[in-house]
Amino acid sequence: MRILEGEKVSKHFGGLAALSDVNLHIEQGEIVGLIGPNGAGKTTLFNLISGAIPTKSGAIRFKDKNITGLKPHQICRLGVARTFQSVKIFSNMSALDNAMVGSFFGMPTSMSPADAAREATKSLEDVGLSAAKAIPARDLTLVNQKRLEVARALATKPELLLLDELMAGLTHTEMAETMELVTGLRDKGITIFMIEHVMKAIMGICDRIMVLHHGENIAEGTPKEIAGNKTVVEVYLGE
Amino acid sequence: MNMTTFTSKKFLVPWLTSLILLVLLATAPLYISSYNIILVAAIVMYIILTVSWAFFSGPTGYISLATAAFFGVGIYTTAVLGKALPLLAVIAAGGLVSFVLALIVGAITLRLRGIYFAIFTFGLVELIKHVLLFWEITVTGTRGRFVVLVDNITIYYVVFGIFVLLLLTAYLIRRSKFGLAMQSIGDNEEAAAHTGVNVTMVKILTFAVSAFFIGAVGGIMATRWTYVDPYVAFNPLFSFLPVLMAIFGGLGQFYGPIIGAAIFAYLEELLLTKFPYYYMLIFGIILVVVILYLPDGLIGLMQRLRQRWQKGGLTGKHANT
């Protein structure tokens, strides 16, 4: 089943075309990677999907429902959650409260405080943060803050999870753990769309990769196909 | 919204203190002179303004300077409706008009961030003042209005009633899921929106609830003035004082703005009566010292002193062994 579809999605910032006529599709249960040089429009595409910036041209559909023009909180409640390139946590709140914002507000139906706390606790367990429940988010290490962002997203019970450079700034061990976490989430039935610069990570876990360059979709395929694609190697991998 | 950790002692002491204070306030007219009753009412009025302000601006981080506008709207509602309706209905009307005004203003302006929001809200005070002046000059042909008189004890109890209602509302909301949403907006608005929080709705509603209490207290305090005109009703000082009082007390805790407003308002009265010529000078010095040396306000100072005392106790024991 097709979970996300973008048709001729475009975004201009003044005269600059950040995205022009990008088509995309993501099937349920896939891990799809989104790569491209800096300024290629990757985060802009995420911002359009999640509603952070309004889509003026083109259409985005989630499970065959047109979500173009919806507000971020509406898109989240439909089942699309995301993390941010630069970590955006609620730094003055405890890890549990961070996740509870997700379980309280991120679902279409409202929940009792006890249920919300249970859901939040579960999502913290899923990312391995149960020991940090009561710790203020600002006191967590970078890798744990990134995990907390994932937990907060999970607490909204997403069907599609957008991960924006989850691996950036992590050590090798942390990266291996995080890759395991991502595949684990897919095994639980969450579809993943991830922006990543770390080639090892993206080649290792993605079913399919999409390449953006100057706001255009220049290639798409399995990791193997992308690694052997001449245009991609020229503009991105560089050798 | 820390549902996880309460120790019974931590929970009990503030509750008991608050209860005793509330009982003292409720019975105050029995043993306090008429002059002092009005003084206490004025102090409680400042507490209401400050807590209402902090209720919205504290967690969300949007600095509102519209307090004087909502306060003035309450005052003018009483001036207009005072003779037509019973007192409590007039007060409620003042609160409701402020509430609706805040809904409209909030819908227009709460997409503005930081300094722009502060400037707009301050502009609102001037705007309403001058619209009223224009109306009175060109349409009614009068300037100012007489307000119905109410006895001091009634004023006191209405102010006290608004105060209790406000405390209950602020406390319950702070501990509810709505309070969690407000805090998440203050911490990171974009992330809150992407986690399912309808940030616009939460901000506008909170702003309007805070405006309700400001308008209501304006409605009752108007009866003390006998005569109001737009300059009296929309005094910009009422926009700045609540901000200063809240910072003076400390914004981090629920009790900060309450303690800040109480001490600040009493200090102002004390200085004004004891040192009428140096009052502004002394007041200014105190403010500068607090801003420079107590960034977390009086509450922050109290916490630091307590920590130092506890640490001192521990090291003392170590020294003995």
Q: What is this structure, in a nutshell?
A:
The complex is a heterodimer of chains A (about 240) and B (about 325). Chain A is an alpha/beta fold.
Task: Give a description of the structure.
The complex is a heterodimer of chains A (239) and B (321). Chain A is of the alpha/beta class. Helices cover 38% and strands 26% of the residues of chain A. Chain A has nine helices and ten strands. In chain A, the strands form two sheets. In chain A, strands 6-7-8-3-9-10 form a six-stranded mixed β-sheet, with helices on both faces. Chain A has a four-stranded antiparallel β-sheet with strand order 2-1-4-5, with helices on one face. Chain A is globular and about 50 Å long. The model of chain A has no long low-confidence stretch (mean pLDDT 90). Chain B is mostly helical. Chain B has a two-stranded antiparallel ribbon. Residues 1-7 and 315-321 of chain B have low confidence and may be disordered. The chains are: A alpha/beta (239), B mainly alpha (321). The A-B interface holds A 50-52, 71-73, 76-77, 81-82, 84, 88-94, 96-97, 100-102, 104-107, 113, 116-117, 133-134, 152-153, 156 and B 1-5, 177, 180-181, 183-184, 186-188, 190-199.
Features:
heterodimer; A: 239 residues; alpha/beta; Rossmann fold; 2 domains; six-stranded mixed beta sheet; four-stranded antiparallel beta sheet; 9 helices; 38% helix; globular; B: 321 residues; mainly alpha; two-stranded antiparallel sheet; 2 strands; 1% strand; disordered N terminus; disordered C terminus
Helical region count of chain A? Answer: 9
Assembly context of the chains: heterodimer
Shape estimate of chain A: globular
Residue-averaged pLDDT of chain B = 86
The greatest interface between two protein chains, and residues involved on each side, is:
A-B, 35 and 23 residues
The Cα radius of gyration of chain B reads: 21 Å
Written as H for each helix and E for each strand, in order along the chain, the element string of chain B is: HHHHHEHHHHEHHHHH
* Biggest beta sheet attributes of chain B: 2 strands, antiparallel
Biggest sheet, spatial arrangement of strands of chain A: 6-7-8-3-9-10
Estimate the strand proportion of chain B: under 5%
CATH class of the largest domain in chain A: Alpha Beta
**What is the beta-strand fraction of chain A?**
25-35%
Regions of chain A with pLDDT < 50 over 5+ consecutive residues?
A: none
Give the termini distance of chain A in whole angstroms.
37 Å
Number of strands of chain B: 2
Biggest pleated-sheet summary of chain A? 6 strands, mixed
The number of distinct structural domains of chain A comes to 2
Taken from the alpha-carbon principal axes, the silhouette of chain B is globular
